[in-house]
Design a protein that fits this description.
The protein has about 325 residues and is α/β, with parallel strands linked by helices. The chain has 2 domains: about 1-145 and about 285-335, Quinone Oxidoreductase, Chain A, domain 1; about 150-280, Quinone Oxidoreductase, Chain A, domain 1 (Alpha-Beta Complex). The chain is built from 11 helices and 17 strands. Strands 3, 4, 5, 8, 9, 16 and 17 form a 7-stranded mixed β-sheet that branches. A 6-stranded parallel β-sheet has the order 12-11-10-13-14-15, sandwiched between helices. Helix 7 runs parallel beside helix 8 (about 240-250). It is globular, with a radius of gyration of 20 Å. The model has no long low-confidence stretch (mean pLDDT about 95).
Length: about 325
């Protein structure tokens, strides 16, 4: 099969690999669409520097079940499916607590095992769901991370509901999904991004207000009648973005940090105490989050924004465009 592999030195190479066979409890999925996430850029840099071994990336997958392994009972060959990338062990403390996104004994598609930048992937049937019938594979694939991470952030951790004002900092793929998830919960949403085209995209998917970072605090205070936001989802996680998030929070507000790699800031305990502010990090998502995102998509309350599709051979140019801020929403590869 053809696949993209990240190689030492930062090479993005189209290679030929053996087509995998599904093992006990696994299914082989012929990939119709693989989402390109900003996290893939971090993985490429790690492989380039030698911090990570060469890998086939891709953790947003939609496709058709080609073959089933022994012991598979729920999924059938020919099923149109979407795939969650977390492959938890099912036995550790985190898994028992149903916090499978924090499993340290399992694996992750496109991170520690070959991912969906390929013609085929093999995964446990437990991480496979029926694809939403109203979405094309390109949009459906992105639910695995963009949609599920947005749900985990906005609802599971953020607890957004119809009484809330939610600020979303960063209107990329996850950010545009977060706007829609918050709106589906009945919240008022302010979307923040320095790019005009990203703000326009946020407005199209339902944001009540959009603002540049410089305008954001005034916009959030205006939307909340000077109380401050109930929830801030920070998908940028620079020091400046975190400072904005904290400044924008009202009493009892929650700031959820989603992006890795930003510079830290100093936070006074008295600031947290006086307003009972919650500062929490979000890591990935669970299968339950994924299922809720799929449900929202089927209800037409969540439609991932796909800005660009391309063949596998164009993976490097797509990644460069993403790094340069040229893609608003998600790019998708079609093996």
């Amino acid at each position: 099969m053809r696949a993209i592999r990240f190689q030492p030195g930062g090479v993005v190479e189209l290679v030929d690999l053996p087509t995998p066979e599904p093992a006990e409890g696994e299914v082989l999925v012929r990939v119709a669409a693989a989402g390109v996430c900003r996290t893939d850029l971090h993985l490429l840099k790690e492989v380039a520097s030698g911090e990570r071994a060469p890998l086939v990336p891709g953790h947003e997958t939609a496709g058709t079940v080609q073959k089933i392994g022994p012991g598979v009972g729920r999924v059938r060959a020919g099923d149109q499916v979407v795939v969650h990338f977390e492959l938890p062990c099912g036995k550790c403390r985190s898994c028992i607590q149903k916090r499978t996104n924090l499993c340290t004994q399992g694996a992750a598609l496109g991170f520690s095992v070959p991912g969906a930048y390929a013609e085929y992937v093999h995964v446990p049937e437990d991480v496979v769901l029926a694809a939403p019938r109203n979405l094309e594979p390109e949009a459906a694939a992105t639910l695995a991370c963009s949609g599920a991470t947005a749900y985990h952030t906005v609802v599971t951790l953020g607890g957004a509901d119809e009484r809330d004002v939610v600020a979303v900092i960063g209107s990329g793929g996850v950010g545009l999904s977060a706007v829609q998830v918050a709106k589906a919960r009945g919240a008022a949403v302010v979307a923040v991004d320095p790019r005009e085209e990203a703000r326009e995209a946020a407005k199209r998917v339902g944001a009540d207000e959009v603002a540049t970072p410089e305008e954001a605090l005034a916009a959030i205070l205006g939307a909340s009648k000077d109380r401050g936001a109930d929830l801030v989802v920070d998908l940028v996680s620079t020091g400046e973005a975190m400072q904005l998030g904290l400044a924008a929070l009202g009493p009892g507000g929650r700031l959820v940090e989603v992006a890795p790699g930003g510079e830290g800031i100093s936070v006074s305990p008295s600031l947290l105490m006086e307003k009972e502010i919650t500062l929490v990090g979000a890591h990935s998502s669970t299968m339950a989050d994924f299922a809720r995102a799929v449900d929202l998509a089927e209800a037409r309350l969540l439609k991932p924004v796909v800005a660009r599709t391309a063949p596998l051979a164009d993976a490097e140019s797509v990644l460069r465009a993403l790094e340069n801020g040229e893609i608003v929403g998600r790019a998708v590869l079609r093996p």
